[in-house]
Amino acid sequence: MKKKKLIAMLTAAAMVLSLAACGNTNNQENKAAANISTAASGESAQESTESKESVANDTKDATADDSAADAAEKPVQTKPLVVYLNDFDAVIGDMFKEATGYDVEVVVGNGAETMSRIAAEKGNPQWDVVWIDSMYDVYNLSADGELVTDWEPENAANLTGFSKDLVPDNKCMYPTDIHAAGVLVYRNDVWSEADAPKTFDDLTDAKYKDAVGMADPGVAAPAYPLAAYFMDKKGLDAGKEYFTTLFDNGLKVFPKNPQVVQALAGGDISIAMLQETNAYDMVASGEPVSIIWPEEGAPGSTRVAAISSSTEQLEIAKIFVNFLLDAKTQQQLVDTGDEGYFEPSVEGVTLKAERDANAILAVADEVFGAENEADIKAWFADMSAK
Fold first, then answer.
1. First to last CA, the chain
2. Which of 361, 342, 365, 362 is nearest to 352 (CA)?
3. CB count, 10 Å around CB of 17?
4. Is the separation of the CB atoms in 294 and 203 below 8 Å?
5. What span, in angstroms and rounded, lies between the C-alpha atoms of 332 and 99?
6. Domains of the chain, CATH where assigned
7. For residues 282 and 289, what is the distance between their CA atoms, to the nearest angstrom?
8. Is 52 exposed, middle or buried (0-12, 13-18, 19+ CB in 10 A)?
9. Nearest to 282 by CA among 273, 291, 295
10. Can you say how many angstroms the Cα of residue 243 is from the centroid of all Cα atoms in its chain?
11. pLDDT tens digits, residue range 245-259?
């Protein structure tokens, strides 16, 4: 009996030791599993951190590459862009510099002076861009291979329908604005509204003898488009006949529009075919004058921008022309003051409040105006000298 009890006790003790051993084994396995899980989590976290750092580094590298690419694509300027112009010389350089960072050197002169300078430099052009209201003169430069052709600025898509028609087939120049080369202006202390001329044909009336003046088409940039319009509209011979009648009626021709203003203000003439900026300036200064926009329309003078085919700064020159066709640029030019009386060439620009909202402009065909320019200017010079 005692032997059986002893065996039972030994068996129970063995079972206890066995269970303890199993418990220790399970604990060690659990700890090992936990350690493996912790290690795996640590490795995963490290991989995630490394992945994020890699993405961040890749992003930085991509940004740096893009910046480098942009810098590489932007033309580097080594000297100012030379622009020949006859208006806006006081503001356009600063405007372009602020918008693009590029420098501009402006060379200002009237239409005849500018074209004479270009002709004198034909063998060694000193200009990159010409920007003047002498569309026909500029167009003629393309015939001699002096202009970049067959290109289109991005902002040309914003041109008005009227302006799109002024872009020649060879795309050598782009219009930036159109203003009246001549509106009818009369002294309202000499003529009543009823007696004042209403159309350009009225100027041939004998009652206006010795009263009418205009600028010389051979000297003043806006005056040639005025003459060319009548020659184109009426036909070359009929146009010359029209002006012959005006000369017979005492038409006085002055070198440029400022001299016409002086004659009108001083009483030497009492009616003028006057460029619209000068006309509105006279009204603003308190001169006793009134402006008439003829119902048939006023001859328009188109300011165009073109690039020299000899430029060493082609890309920057294209940026400049595209800048001129930006609505923000044209709005700023409208708002600058004295020179802001014009019809913008692009959509989205607000005109000066005092400018007639119903004003109609008409221009001579660019080919007609260009092909007949020398003949018309020579004819005018002969008639003026008589």
1. 163
2. 342
3. 10
4. no
5. 12
6. 81-179+302-356 (3.40.190.10), 183-299 (3.40.190.10)
7. 7
8. exposed
9. 291
10. 35
11. 999 999 999 999 999
Residue 25 pLDDT level (bands cut at 50, 70, 90):
very low
Tokens found for residue 143: 């015939």
pLDDT of residue 15: 39
Say if residues 240 and 217 touch (Cβ distance below 8 Å).
no
Coil vs helix vs strand at 103 = coil
pLDDT, residue 71, reads 53
* pLDDT at residue 336 greater than cutoff 90: no
Output the six-digit token pair for 53. 């750092």
| Element housing 349 (H / E) | none
Cβ atoms of 221 and 132 within 8 Å: the answer is: yes
- Note if the pTM is more than 0.85: no
Give the integer Cα–Cα distance in Å for 226 and 362: 10
The C-alpha atoms of residue 296 and residue 277 are separated, in whole angstroms, by 20
Give the span between the Cα atoms of 207 and 36, in whole angstroms: 113
Q: Sign (positive/negative) of CA torsion 198, 361, 266, 188?
A: positive
CA geometry: angle 363, 222, 293, nearest 5 deg: 60
Q: What is the DSSP annotation of 148-181?
A: --S---GGGGGB-HHHHTTS-TT---EEEEEEES
